[in-house]
Each structure stands twice: as structure tokens, then as C-alpha cells.
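User: Let's play a game. I give you a shape written as C-alpha cells, and you guess the letters that built it. Ready? Here's round one.
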């Protein structure tokens, strides 16, 4: 479990999970050998606090941040992505024949409506994983589902993730989901509470381990 004040602190703290080899799974993934921590919980108390971008995050990866943020907040300038499509244009299935209805489902607009009208509900969810599609893709979406709830006037949000590369992909995902969290809070008149990430497979490729280790020294 990682508890931190800011996203930058949370990401840096999470890398320390790879310092103890006894706690790591090692296996050959389809993209090369990697080490993994299972069922990692990362909780950020103040996700909108600056600085958002950690100084230690490699500059070569930083363009990824803008792309992931754009997908989470439905920026029309971003190219179509599975993440954005699942959140803002989920194909709505209806009818006995299983056909697709004409109008896709905007899950975030639905979440925004429920936060405004039923803020204490435990039904405010958004799904990413499509069991009819994703098991057959070479690179399916990493997030599985997100939940939103209002407690003590603050919006609290949780993102459950199938797998993410802790070195390259985790930080953009943390920042992107925090941007969505902030947008939902502000548009519904709620305070900005904490965000949490539960990652089933938090991993680093072995070729990146020396850079992670050097950063932790």
C-alpha cells in the first residue's frame, strides 16, 4: 500500500516496491521479461496539488501524459483511443436481437448526472473492459473500471487497473485520471477529494530496472 499527498510523491514511492526482490514475481511477458507486484493500492490525498509532473519522470515519456489526459477528459483534438471511446461512446446494446442502438453511451455524462442527483450512491461506475472484444486484442485497455462517490462534500474516485508499467505508463495514467476526477468535481460543485488506484499487475521490464534502481538511490 502506498499513501501519499500528491501524484508525484505517490509515483516515486511506488517505485520502491521494486527494491525488494523477495516480493517480486518474475516472468516472461509477451513484451519481454519483467518483475511484478500484485494487487498494489496507491492512494493520493491531494491529487490536484502542484507540481503535477514529477521532476524524476523521464522527459522522453512526457508526451504520453498529454495523450492520456486528453483521452480521460474527452479532448476533441486527441486521436480516437479505446480509453476515450469506452468512457464517452460505449456502444449501447439493446433489443432482443442484441443489436446496437444508434446512440452510444456517454458514461462520464451519466456519472456527472448521478453525482449531481445521487451523490451518496454506490452505483456511480464507469467501465472500460469489454469482454466481447478485449480478450482477443494484442493490447487491450489497461483500466477495468472507475468508481465515483461523494463523502463529506468531497468527490472521491477509484480506478481499478488490469496492468500498468510502473516506469513508463503509470504516471500518465495517474495524472489522466486525476484530471477526470477534478473535472467531475468542479462541474458538479463538489470539493476535490482523494483518488486511489488499485493495480492487479504493477510491473517493470527488467531492461528498465537499472534506471529505476538508480532513481531510488
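Assistant: Ready! My guess for every position:
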Amino acid at each position: 500500500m502506498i499513501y501519499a499527498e500528491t501524484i508525484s510523491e505517490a509515483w516515486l514511492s511506488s517505485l520502491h516496491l521494486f527494491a525488494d526482490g523477495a516480493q517480486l514475481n518474475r516472468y516472461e511477458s509477451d513484451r519481454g521479461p519483467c518483475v511484478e507486484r500484485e494487487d498494489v493500492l496507491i492512494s493520493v490525498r491531494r491529487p490536484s496539488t502542484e507540481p503535477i509532473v514529477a521532476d524524476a519522470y523521464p522527459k522522453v515519456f512526457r508526451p504520453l501524459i498529454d495523450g492520456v489526459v486528453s483521452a480521460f477528459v474527452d479532448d476533441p483534438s486527441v486521436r480516437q483511443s479505446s480509453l476515450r471511446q469506452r468512457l464517452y461512446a460505449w456502444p449501447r446494446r439493446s433489443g432482443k436481437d442484441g443489436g446496437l442502438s444508434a446512440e452510444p453511451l456517454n458514461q462520464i455524462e451519466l456519472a456527472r448526472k448521478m453525482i449531481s442527483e445521487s451523490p451518496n450512491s454506490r452505483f456511480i461506475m464507469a467501465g472500460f473492459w469489454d469482454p466481447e472484444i478485449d480478450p482477443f486484442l494484442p493490447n487491450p485497455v489497461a483500466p477495468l473500471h472507475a468508481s465515483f462517490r461523494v463523502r463529506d462534500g468531497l468527490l472521491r474516485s477509484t480506478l481499478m487497473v488490469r496492468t500498468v508499467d510502473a516506469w513508463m505508463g503509470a504516471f500518465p495514467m495517474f495524472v489522466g485520471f486525476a484530471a477526470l476526477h477534478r473535472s467531475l468535481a468542479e462541474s458538479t460543485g463538489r470539493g476535490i477529494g482523494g483518488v486511489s488506484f488499485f493495480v492487479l499487475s504493477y510491473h517493470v521490464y527488467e531492461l528498465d530496472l537499472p534506471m529505476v534502481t538508480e532513481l531510488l538511490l
